[in-house]
Write a structure and sequence with these properties.
The chain is of the alpha+beta class. About 30% of the residues lie in helices and about 25% in strands. It has an eight-stranded mixed β-sheet with strand order 3-5-1-12-9-10-11-20, with helices on both faces. It binds ligand MTE, hypoxanthine and dioxothiomolybdenum(VI) ion. Ligand MTE binds next to helix 15 and helix 17.
Length: about 750
């Protein structure tokens, strides 16, 4: 792999927030949080904590100089609870001491008395009580109510997906220190330095230009630091601001799992109507999103759920309703796919159940309803330049679906307790922030007088390889050695008003901004060369491999010479640029528009073997044909696809978030919460790049890749259902994701005597 920071990574030399050499006198913060999911604070006793060894200060909501408010979309989230707690883990006080351990010891001496109120953890219960964070959201196309009568088969049911812990390697962290004139500087592990800046300014009651946020890289974000880095940065900043000392706050793994929100669990009702050939005529769905105790990004995530309610299919009559339900859990947040995967799971369940009723393979319905060029989504956008069918067909040609199915049938006949299962999973994911205004980015490029280059954008490297992609863009435009190019930390004083690194859009948005800046620098350099060599405007001059060419003849002039000469002539060797995605728009009032620049798409086959005696299973393979456009970096893109797929497989199978009815997280460590490891991962993940795909809306004709492949992982759920069905053909399994081995085993053997009677007569 070509990524410049890999050697540093494996040698442990890369800096993450906790690695920065702390300024002298740095103090450490620990957070006292609510032990109850709902109630009023009757008393908070800090007497013992106040005299604890090494203690420097304890801050509560009363100490906040600005607003005690960090809600980004809706102002419904206090930084520190003042009166009413709404989930276990909600921050109440910041304890600052000389060392991290002393801070924790002092924190543990705080006593709280809470008069408890009823706890709601279930979104449907919250809906019944009217606890919605925003009004119901509706997307519709055609006329569902009138379409049912034209259907030969109508199937309805419930589909449920659970949460997912981000488990980024670097936990939430921030290091803040005071700057002169009452300002503050923060090193934050965030996907969105601008959002941290805005939040801190609000909490401290100072203007944004007094807050500097710097982000070098993240040890993973996966959406968990799009919004939820704000709170920890604001707490470190508050303590630092008050004490006029550097303050570091790094959550322990267990604190991070307990205190932060996760992927939203959804509970949904669907109704699907088809004709006798399997053509889908109508689809109605209601999504109950478990938002947790405050809005966070839930409304935006619910939007994307609605955008993706029909996944890769054209359905002429659709009504999709989303409910953003407030519960007494930590606020759930962005997670790779941003509500899209939850929606796609429901339509796939509906198709699976319809196929089961019709006695056909779900892939017949999937294929028959796959989007065709020009088909309209429920929000009005029509699909253009679609390669969806090409991906499907190439996958089939390469792996022969019918042949795989036959060999699985043979295997299942020959084996009593081992059953194989298969599913096909297509994906079509819209690329752009669904909030149109967020689709903008800027870049700042400096060419230093020695010919080396420094680039700043708001794109945050979190393992997805964005820095290498940006280096490639600049190296390609200047035609110079990539090692001359360095990507600087993101910093709010160099890049202002930036969107977070999210929505898989950072390469497109920041890459296109960078392209503009590099082009203007290249133009300045070519004029400077013309001046030096006294060449007319109509004669072509260009730089190739660091050498100046006139027409097609190489000269003696090298990159370093051009830069030196331009500098001496006082040519501006810095450039700042902005890019805003053209054409897109969305009218929220009517839920119609053209929100996406383009779509990321492809199809996958997932095969598994299930041990029906023990409920355990092996994922044999995931085979994919995906449209990457013209890839910027094949190895990075392949790595993104593989990583996303394994994360999707984990969500559907072994990652099981369990809260009890009192809102206490029971799976708060890696002994109880299982994520995929190398043994769990499929032996084979075959990623095939669709050939001859170009995408002018992407940087250098590439396509966004960060999130969409996660959705292929959903296929494992249906492959497992397929194998369960092979073991008990007559049983209708009504279960939910994740399909943990325990859950599978219990379902396989529920009413097992009926099964024995049916096979033994
Ligand atoms: N890959 C790694 N290694 N680590 C991450 O945290 N985040 C994912 C994806 N891939 C992530 C990742 C998410 S949620 C998004 S939105 C995209 O990367 C963001 O980066 P991009 O816009 O450069 O694709
Ligand atoms: N994706 C990710 N993050 C976002 C989006 C989106 O579509 N909209 C707002 N924040
Ligand atoms: Mo990704 S969920 O858009 O950070």
């Amino acid at each position: 792999m070509s990524r410049y920071d890999l050697i540093q990574h494996v040698r442990g030399e890369s800096y993450f927030v906790d690695d920065f050499i702390s300024p002298e006198g740095t103090l450490y913060a620990s957070i006292f949080f609510s032990p109850k999911a709902h109630g009023k604070i009757k008393s908070l006793n800090i007497d013992e904590a106040k005299i604890s060894n090494g203690i420097k200060a304890i801050f509560t909501s009363a100490d906040i100089p600005g607003e005690n408010q960090i809600g980004g979309i809706i102002p419904d989230e206090e930084l520190l609870v003042n009166d009413e707690v709404n989930y276990i883990g909600q921050p109440i006080a910041i304890v600052v001491a000389e060392t991290p351990l002393l801070a924790k010891q002092a924190r543990d001496k705080i006593k709280i008395d809470i008069s408890e109120l009823p706890v709601i953890t279930d979104p449907r219960e919250s809906f019944k009580k009217g606890n919605l964070i925003i009004p119901p959201q509706i997307f519709s196309l055609g006329d569902v109510d009138n379409a049912w009568k034209n259907c030969d088969l109508i199937v309805s049911g419930k589909a449920e997906t659970s949460g997912q812990e981000h488990l980024y390697l670097e936990t939430q962290s921030a290091l803040a220190f005071p700057t002169e004139g009452g300002g503050i500087k923060i090193y934050s592990s965030t996907q969105g330095p601008t959002v941290v800046q805005r939040t801190v300014a609000k909490v401290l009651g100072i203007s944004m230009n007094k807050v500097e946020v710097d982000t070098l890289r993240l040890g993973g974000g996966f959406g968990g630091k799009e919004d939820q880095a704000n709170a920890w940065a604001a707490m470190a900043a508050l303590a630092s601001f008050k004490l006029k000392k550097p303050v570091k706050l790094v959550l322990s793994r267990q604190e991070d799992i307990k205190l932060t929100g996760k992927r939203h669990p959804y509970s949904s009702d669907y109704k699907i109507g088809l004709d006798k050939n399997g053509k889908i005529i109508a689809y109605e769905v209601a999504f109950y999103q478990n938002a947790g105790a405050s809005a966070d990004l839930s409304p935006a995530i619910l939007d994307r759920t609605l955008f993706h309610s029909t996944n890769s299919y054209y359905i002429p009559n659709v009504k999709a309703t989303g409910y953003c339900c407030k519960t007494n859990l930590p606020p759930n947040t962005a997670f790779r796919g941003f509500g899209g995967p939850q929606a796609m799971f429901v339509i796939e369940t509906a198709i699976y159940k319809a196929a089961e009723k019709m006695g056909i393979d779900p892939l017949i319905i999937q294929e028959k309803n796959l989007l065709n060029e020009g088909d309209e989504f429920p929000y009005g956008q029509k699909i253009k330049n679609s390669n969806l069918r090409r991906c499907w067909n190439e996958l089939d040609e390469k792996y022969h679906l019918a042949r795989i199915k036959n060999s699985i049938e043979d295997y299942n006949k020959a084996n009593k307790f081992l059953k194989k299962g298969i599913a096909v999973m297509p994906v079509c994911f819209g690329i752009s922030f669904t909030n149109t205004f967020m689709n903008q980015a800027s870049a700042l490029v400096h060419i230093y007088s020695d010919g080396s280059i420094g680039i700043t954008t708001a794109a945050i490297e979190m393992g997805q390889g964005i820095n290498e992609k940006l280096r490639k863009v600049a190296a390609n435009i200047f035609s110079i050695d990539i090692n001359k190019i360095k990507i600087e930390a993101s910093n709010t004083t160099r890049i202002a008003n930036a969107s977070p690194t999210a929505a898989s859009s950072s390469a497109d948005l920041n890459g296109k901004a960078l392209e503009i800046a590099c082009h203007s620098l290249r133009d300045r350099l070519t004029s400077s060369i013309r001046q030096d060599l006294k060449i007319e405007n109509n004669i072509a001059v260009h730089i190739k491999d660091e050498i100046v060419y006139i027409i097609d003849k190489p000269t003696k002039l090298k990159w370093e010479d051009i830069i030196k000469s331009a500098f001496m002539k006082r040519v501006n060797l810095s450039s700042q640029s902005q890019y805003a995605t053209p054409e897109i728009s969305f009218n929220k009032k009517i839920s119609k528009g053209y929100p996406f620049a383009y779509y990321s798409m492809g199809t996958s086959i997932i095969e598994i073997t299930l041990d029906c005696l023990r409920g355990i299973y092996k994922i044999d393979s995931v085979k994919v044909v995906h449209d990457f456009g013209k890839t910027l970096d094949k190895i990075i893109d392949k790595g993104q696809a593989e990583g996303a797929i394994v994360q999707g497989l984990g969500w559907m199978t072994i990652e099981d978030i369990v809260y009890n009815d009192q809102g206490k997280l029971l799976t708060d460590s890696l002994s109880t919460y299982k994520i995929p490891d190398i043994n769990f991962s499929p032996d084979n993940i075959d990623i095939n790049f669709l050939e001859n795909s170009v995408n002018p809306m992407g940087i250098f004709n590439s396509k966004a890749i960060g999130e969409p492949p996660l959705i292929y992982g959903i296929g494992v759920y249906f492959a497992l259902m397929n194998a369960m069905k092979a073991f008990r053909p007559k049983k209708i399994f009504n279960i939910s994701a994740p399909l943990t081995p325990e859950k599978i085993l219990l379902s396989l053997y529920s009413n097992y005597t009926d099964h024995l009677t049916s096979i033994n007569g």
